[in-house]
TrEMBL record:
GO biological process, one term: glutathione catabolic process
Name of protein: Glutathione hydrolase proenzyme
Pathway where it operates: Sulfur metabolism; glutathione metabolism
InterPro entries: GGT_bact (IPR051792), GGT_CS (IPR055262), GGT_lsub (IPR043138), GGT_peptidase (IPR000101), GGT_ssub_C (IPR043137), Ntn_hydrolases_N (IPR029055)
Subunit structure: This enzyme consists of two polypeptide chains, which are synthesized in precursor form from a single polypeptide.
Record flagged with keyword Ribonucleoprotein: no
SUPFAM superfamilies listed in its UniProt record: N-terminal nucleophile aminohydrolases (Ntn hydrolases)
Keywords: Acyltransferase, Glutathione biosynthesis, Hydrolase, Transferase, Zymogen
Keyword Metal-binding in record: no
The organism's taxonomic lineage, starting at the top: Bacteria, Pseudomonadati, Bacteroidota, Sphingobacteriia, Sphingobacteriales
Length: 573
């Protein structure tokens, strides 16, 4: 009797154990099918740089929209809530991977206006005129974001266009409560807004902005109504286009009605490479990001960085030496492929990448002056923003979009309520003269009418075993490439979860200037001393990048990484 009872109790216990183990292993508590107990989601996720915009994206997913629908709604919501970078007056790139594994990319990068020319930022002595490519009406390329969203929706969208624009209209008209970050950014830029937009009080108020203040943008709401009702023509034609051209005329800018009408986003084949067992799907030129990311991954692949560890001396030295060589190549060979033959295959040939790393020595840093862009044997053939979205069908969207600098040129279109980009600074104004990110360039990235300026934006999707693995990207100018690179390594090599991989301290190097920038407290002093003793010049920076990413766990759940450096938010269901 006693024996039998023990047996029955053991059986109960065994069943209970099996039951519990099952739910622990699948990471799911009974009754919570969408969300598991580690904050991971089954049906989809949005990670972006502002809470209200993330909510807009999640609402669209829950209404049955797909990842592209949610992306359109997030892009427009960010224009309202993140005026530093969210935009209709700028451009960007989308990398897309459908649930069935098909990939594509959309290039909605701005273009040089027809009246742009190679010497437009030089004075009569041939010197670059300070700030002309940054804070004047001539700093703006022809915006691409509205056409990009319209085109993405035309090809992949499921819900009605108007329903995706509506949330931005509501946010702009009813206002939203600003965060501390946004209040600080607005206060910091107030004087420049007033100077560049005389007589206007757009984005400025009497006294200082405070966290929790309501920001209402009625002119922007009207612009979005045009976009809602007329699609791309609501921006590139009609009253909004008239306001853009009036703004240009009044400030000696270059963008004309014809420039706007002629703007079209371009579908390009994704750039695809491998790192160990992973397939990396990323952005081709006119972004330099994809090529540089694949070069960096291949440069470090043969080395045991997993054993060396995260942010350890050897890991940092190897990565810095790879970055030095890759950014040197970027300066010479990368530009708009519609205007310049970018030697993509040569730059990505494994033998070429191995040969570049041969000059790296463990004894001392290679001075950047001794590194030049490579030669091939025979030619071939603080603001941007990133959001990562996945839907219940497994469709994944990785979009990085920008006005270039924080609040772009700081010039807004009077009466239309949106800021213009200063993306023209991403062109090389003069060979060898650095742009605002210290990047230099030459012929490949010289200014031409209708040409797209080179970018570092690196929206990326990673696959493992033929399945979605990670969606990742970030703002940060020239540091974008290295932040995406390190985030991928943090997960694959250093076994960090998505949130940790995004939050981990980063470092950056870009050939010129010849230095290693490390986030404050990112590397311990012993390691810094070791780097310095080998000839590395180490500088410190408060923060690098704002990565927003999503990881698909082996149990099929989505785990978000929202960068704690900003107001970045992850929401799922
Ligand atoms: O396209 C580019 O590479 C730059 N315009 C991106 C600017 C940027 O990321 C600024 N963000 N902090």
């Amino acid at each position: 009797m006693t024996l039998n009872c023990v047996k029955i109790n053991n059986l109960k216990c065994l069943l209970l154990c099996l039951f519990t183990t099952f739910f622990v292993l699948v990471g799911c508590a009974p009754g919570q099918l969408g969300l598991n107990n580690s904050g991971q989601y089954r049906n989809g996720m949005v990670v972006c740089a502002y809470p209200d915009a993330a909510q807009v994206g999640l609402d669209i997913l829950k209404k049955g929209g797909n990842a592209v629908d949610a992306a359109v709604a997030v892009q427009f919501a960010l224009t309202v809530t993140l005026p530093e970078a969210g935009n209709v007056g700028g451009g960007g790139f989308m990398v897309y991977r459908a649930g069935d594994g098909k990939t594509s990319t959309l290039d909605f990068r701005e273009k040089g206006p027809a009246a742009a020319n190679v010497n437009m930022y030089l004075d009569s002595a041939g010197n670059v005129i300070p700030d002309m490519s940054l804070y004047t009406h001539k700093a703006s390329g022809v915006p691409g974001s509205v056409d990009g969203m319209f085109e993405a929706h035309r090809k992949y969208g499921k819900l009605k266009w108007a329903d995706l624009v509506e949330p931005a209209i509501k946010l702009a008209r009813n206002g939203f409560k600003i965060t501390k970050h946004l209040a600080n950014d607005l206060n910091r830029t107030a004087e420049q807004f007033k100077k560049l937009n005389p007589g206007s009080n757009y984005l400025v108020k009497d006294g200082e902005w405070k966290e929790g203040d309501l920001l209402v943008q009625e002119d922007l709401a009207k612009t979005f109504e045009q976009i809602r009702d007329k699609g791309r023509d609501g921006f590139y034609d009609g009253p909004v286009a008239d306001l853009i051209v009036d703004e240009m005329k009044q400030g000696n800018g270059l963008i004309t009605k014809a420039d706007l009408k002629n703007y079209h986003a371009v579908w390009r084949d994704a750039l695809i490479g491998n790192y160990k067992d992973y397939k990396v799907i990323t952005m081709p030129p006119p972004s330099s990001g994809g090529i540089a990311l694949l070069q960096l991954l291949k440069s470090v692949e043969p080395y045991p960085i997993k054993r060396w560890g995260y942010n350890q001396d050897s890991t940092i030295r190897l990565i810095v030496e790879a970055e030095r060589r890759v950014y040197a190549d970027r300066s010479k060979y990368l530009g708009d492929p519609d205007f310049y033959k970018v030697p993509v295959d040569s730059l990505l040939k494994p033998a070429y990448i191995t040969s570049r790393m041969k000059t790296f020595s463990w004894d001392a840093a290679t001075p950047s002056t001794s590194i030049q862009p490579g030669t091939f044997v025979g030619h071939e053939s603080d603001q941007t923003t990133h959001y990562s979205i996945v839907d219940r069908f497994g469709n994944a969207v990785s979009i990085t979009t920008t006005l270039n600098d924080s609040f772009g040129s700081r010039i807004f279109v009077s009466g239309a309520g949106f800021l213009l980009n200063n993306e023209m600074d991403d062109f090389s104004s003069k060979p060898g003269v650095p742009n605002m990110y210290g990047l230099i360039g030459g012929k490949a990235n010289s200014i031409q009418p209708g040409k797209r300026m080179l970018s570092s934006m690196t929206p990326t999707i990673v696959e493992k075993d033929g399945k979605l693995f990670m969606i990742v990207g970030t703002p940060g100018g020239s540091t974008i490439i290295t932040s995406v690179f390190q985030t991928i390594l943090n997960v694959i090599e250093f076994n960090q979860g998505m949130q940790q991989a995004v939050a981990s301290k980063r470092f950056h190097s870009q050939w010129l200037p010849d230095e290693v920038t490390i986030e404050k407290d990112g590397v311990d002093s012993v390691t810094v001393n070791k780097l310095q003793s080998r000839g590395y010049k180490v500088v410190s920076r408060e923060s690098i990048g704002r990565v927003d990413a999503i990881l698909k766990t082996q149990w099929g759940y989505y785990e978000g990484g929202a960068d704690p450096r900003g107001d970045d938010t992850k929401l799922g269901w």
